[in-house]
Every structure is written in structure tokens, then in C-alpha cells.
Structures
1.
Amino acid sequence: MFDNLNQFNILIMLGILAIIVEIILGAATGFELLILGIVFIIGGGVGMLTGSMMITILTIIILTLGYIFFARKMIKQALHITTTKTNTDSIIGEVASVVADIKIGAPGQVKIEGEIWRAESTKDISKGKKVKIISVSGVTLKVTEI
């Protein structure tokens, strides 16, 4: 079955495998496996054309170094995805007013930006006090008194 395989065919197959794994994983690897796969396929192709393992290895090294020192930064910048805060993320650090007493183990309510939210704290906080939002868990705000 593998009688006709040589080292160049194996490089091409490894390149194809790396690309398939990249497709399965998505962008989780930052497209590193895709680049590695392409480099192996090109290296295997050069090896098949020249018949020289030394030229194949040099081709792979040159392409890899070229990617690492030149193309990698540009690709990473082009793929940089900016994240936009959701409404709940944007209220972390904001100040809210307590509209229903918050007791330890018994959530109260706070008002922020005209909306009433369920709120919990590690200390009792009375109605009318100001609190700072430290985190959001589902529909419950974790707050601390200011």
C-alpha cells in the first residue's frame, strides 16, 4: 500500500493533514497549521521536482523563517478581531443605586442606566446607597458598596 510513497509524498500528505486539522479547529491555532501545511506541500513539491532532500529541507526552512519574520505579524494583524463589549460587560465598574435592600444570601435590586437589576453582595447594603458593579453573572450583578 505504501510502497510508492517517498519522503516527498509524505511531506505533502503531512501538509494536507495539517490543513485538514486547521479546518476542523477553525482559527483556534491562529492559522499556524495552515501555513505549516502549505510549507510542507511546497517543500514536498520542490523535492519531487528536484529529487533532492537537501533542497527540500532548505525550502521548508526558508519558507518557515520568511513566515515567522515577515508574514506572521501582517497575518496576525489582518486576523485581529476586536471585541465589542456587550451591554452587560459595559456596566462593570459603573455606579448604581440600591432600590431594594441587599442582604447576604438574599439578593436585592439596583438601578443603573434606568434599568432595575438583581444584585448580590458579600455585605448587607441598604436602599439608597451607591454601589459599584464588580461583575455580572447571568442576570445578577455582583456589587460592592462605595
2.
Amino acid sequence: MQDMIKVSSKGQIVLPAKLRKKACIKKGDILIVNLVGDKVVIEPLNKSKKEDWQQILEETAGIWPHVDSKYVEELRSAAQKRLEETL
């Protein structure tokens, strides 16, 4: 998505509504501004961690087909046992 915006005399910019909506940027959100090479990159600081993890899980679904809830429980039990042995 690309838009043109104008910088005010005070250095202010207005993000277009359709861009704010697509990026889920709301009033009061804090944005991080970085200079990457010769580009200005603006991204939300308070992006939901749940959304981040959900995206990661969707992108990695199926890459470890042997991992299921039983396997995870076995790993947790083994880790708990090792922890108890060290205490």
C-alpha cells in the first residue's frame, strides 16, 4: 500500500485513514520511527503479542508433524522431573 502525505511546517504528518485501519493503528497508539538506509519506517509499538504469536503459529504450522500435545506433555514432564532433581 502506498500513499503520499505532506509534512507540515511543524514536521507533523497525518497517516491516511485506510492505512491506519489496515495497520490497526488507533488514537493513542505509540509508533516507533526508524531510519533504515534512506527510508523512514513507522511501526506500532503496542501491537498485540497474541497477534504476533498467532501469525508465527500460522506460518509454521505443519513444519514439525511429529509434535502433538502428547509429545509436548512428555517434554514438560521430563523438564519438571529434571528441575525437581536439581532442587
3.
Amino acid sequence: MKNHPHFDSTFWPSLIPGGLIVLLLWIIQWAQHLFVFPFYTLGVMPKTVHGLIGILTMPLIHDKLDYHHLLNNSVAFALLMSLLVYSYRSISFKVLFLSWLIGGALVWAFASNNGAYHIGISGVIYSLFGFLFASGLLRRYFPLQALSMLVVFIYGSMIWGIFPLVKHVSWEGHLAGILTGVVLAFVFRKQGPQRPKYQYEIEREMGIEPPDFEAELAKANEAETPRVPPIIVYHYRPNVPIIPLDDTTPSTPQTPE
């Protein structure tokens, strides 16, 4: 993918955006132990006015005691964000921004209000996963299709997170995220890296019919080759005596006079 104009020459610079956001997550996690302010109230409380702020801040807040969850989210987000920036550089920040906002808005609008706040960057992770998977399939470009398969191979088990199987897990946020990513893959399918087109595809789009070389060659050969009348050759057989079918005696050949 290095030779494609949409791809960075190296992968390492693509780690910077995701790394900076992960660093911010850990700074906020550390700040929760320094200040009395209840940071969890910056999450999304569905269908409430004060929960609207969570559309912007929900991905930045995690349970201050659940470092295992934050660590898993940090690794997944850093990797998927790096793959997004490397493979879809020109639209990567659009995808991240819309994933951040639309996923949170869907949780606020459609999740059930049971008095709990929805926090964590998992919804954004699911959106990046859905985008990388669906976009590679829609573009029909082998490097991006290979990336789709790689993402599924690494994080394919995430699909179970969109079902209400585990308590105290925002499955609505996961579902909203993956749906957002798939929709964004469809919306941006004409932007970013595309499958290189063959010459005949470009000419077909321009309305140029490809030349029929075989027909032209046949016409040229026909024009250059003179038409020769057919030659009829007659073959004569000598006189042969006729032997009746019911005559079993041999007959002596007669010599014509």
C-alpha cells in the first residue's frame, strides 16, 4: 500500500493521533483520583437534557477503578485508529469525528434510561471496527479487503458485544457504534483510496467503445486476398462390368470393342 497516493509511506506516523487520544484518556483517569468531581456524570444519560453533554465527553470517561477496561480500550483504539489513519488518511478524521458524535447521539436518543450513565470509548472503537470492515468490502480493493480480514481476525469476537449478554455493559453503545461505522463506510465509499481502474473501464465510462481488432483484421485480410474462382476437377472411372447380385458364377471381364 506504500505506492498508493492515499497511503502514508510508513506506518509509524499513523500511531500519533490515536496515541495522543489514548494519552488523554489516561490523564483523565488519573485526574479522577485527584478531584472530588464525579466524572461519570459527563457520560450519556439517555433522553435527558443534562445527558446531552455526554455526546461529546462520554468516550473520554471510564470507571476510575476499572483499569483493565481502560487498558483494553486503549490498545484497541490505538490500533484501529492507526489503521484508519494509515489506510484512509484523507477521510480518517472525518470518520473519527462523526463516529464520536453520531454514536453518542444514538445512545442518547434510543438507549433505555435506567438511571445509569453510559461511559467509555468502546462505542467509537466499534464504529472504527465497522468502518474498516465494511469499507474494504465496498471498495473491492485487495489491500483494503485484506485489512478488513485482518480486523475481523483480531477483533471479530467484538460482535458479541452488541447483544445484551453482560450486565453493566453498554451494549446499546456498541450497537450504535458498529452501525455508525458501517453507514459511514457506505457514505464515504467514493472518497479515499479506490481500486485502480483498467483502461477499458475508463474508456467505457467516457463512452468510448473498444475497437474490434479481430473484425478489422478479418476485413483487411479479405480486402487484400483476391477472390479465386473455384476449380472443379472431374474424375473418370474406366468401364467396369456389372455383375448381377443373383449371379454367383464369376464372369470374365469384357474388353470393349
